[in-house]
Design brief:
Two copies of one chain form a homodimer. By secondary structure, chain A is an alpha+beta fold. Helix content of chain A is 53%, strand content 9%.
């Protein structure tokens, strides 16, 4: 059995959950509040972050979204989530880096930190300037999603890949908080509606974080 | 022929240069000052960052350190720089993320931004607090390198991999500026001396940035 150490607002944990569902691989989830820095968890992953994937047969611990995503795609080959040709694989990975690095820095980390972590960890009050900045940035990303889906079936090409998974994992965190301006980006919304309707995304839409209800449309497939 | 768009203090560009040398693949380098946001470059890579690898036969553009590293290892298989088994591959990638994400955030980006980019781009004066913070952080990373090399030949295991390449790429940027406290980390220094003596690292040690001389020991194999 596989176990994923995760926390709810971690887009990288969401990405791994979605990918395993796409592959049809069963797993358990363990909530890890990384800020508690539990010695047992640090022994598993000295970087102290999630996701961490533990396989109990053969016993193996895989740390970090990069290693886990590639591990999953190598170990559970069908359906492939990176692509077939060198060109397809490079394009998927380019977009994974786009969302996991750029989108994360410019949007997810700002919004989640200001609106969730600060109050949860009692680390001061949200800075409106950061939230506004993220709110400007997300528009460019939604526009880029529209640029891509105007030309392709999914973000990286014909097939659903880790590019879609990464993008949707980040957007789902922001959307839980109601901070995605879907009304101005109908075509990005169409793409996200298609992601939402996949069985692999079902559990993500059922996430409910104690003390923080999701936005009104978070779960709706028709939003 | 391959062309790498790079800039001198970009650890991710250095990583790609070293990896291609390890593989024995010839390439040209083009200096790209990403902050100029050249339209021709943005057309190649809308994320606007380096490294970008352009292969002219077959014509293909690969953007970003993640996509390029995996592309290189898939296309030029020998010598493998990720590992053979699932366990080895996960360990290499865990450490690549460690250096490309954690070390970059906690050390390289702070030092390079404060000591190089701010004055080069005339964006204010260096903040001593950031440099001090990076100076504290780097000690933990050097200690971790010692922990690993106490137990292994190279960082991820028996073989030289992208883990060593990423770590050395970041450290070489910081070392150019003389900000690695090698004197307190003899065993990390031994590991870095072994990296420095590899033919693949030779060009890195010859880097000379206009107007900014490297630290006295930057080029010495015996430092």
């Amino acid at each position: 059995m596989l176990t994923i150490y995760h926390y709810w607002f971690c887009p990288f944990s969401r990405k791994v959950r979605i990918a395993l569902q796409e592959k049809g691989v069963e797993f358990e989830m363990k909530l890890e509040m990384t800020w508690q820095r539990r010695p047992e968890f640090l022994a598993r992953n000295p970087a102290g972050n999630v996701p961490v994937l533990v396989n109990d047969d053969p016993q193996q611990t895989i740390c970090g979204a990069y290693a886990i995503a590639e591990y999953i795609d190598e170990k559970y080959a069908e359906p492939g989530l990176i692509g077939e040709t060198a060109e397809e694989r490079a394009e998927t990975r380019r977009l994974v880096e786009w969302f996991d690095d750029k989108f994360h820095r410019e949007v997810t980390s700002l919004i989640v930190n200001e609106k969730v972590m600060k109050s949860f960890l009692k680390r001061g009050t949200p800075e409106a300037a950061n939230i506004r900045y993220a709110g400007q940035n997300i528009k460019h990303h939604l526009k880029y999603i529209e640029y891509l889906t105007d030309r392709r079936n999914w973000l990286a090409g014909n097939d659903f890949t880790f590019a879609d998974i990464s993008a949707a994992a980040h957007l789902s965190c922001v959307d839980y908080l109601g901070d995605v301006p879907w009304q101005h980006f109908e075509k990005a919304k169409d793409w996200y509606a298609r992601v939402k309707s996949r069985p692999s995304f079902k559990a993500i839409l059922q996430d409910k974080i104690a003390g923080l209800a999701p936005s009104a449309h978070y779960r709706n497939l028709d939003f």
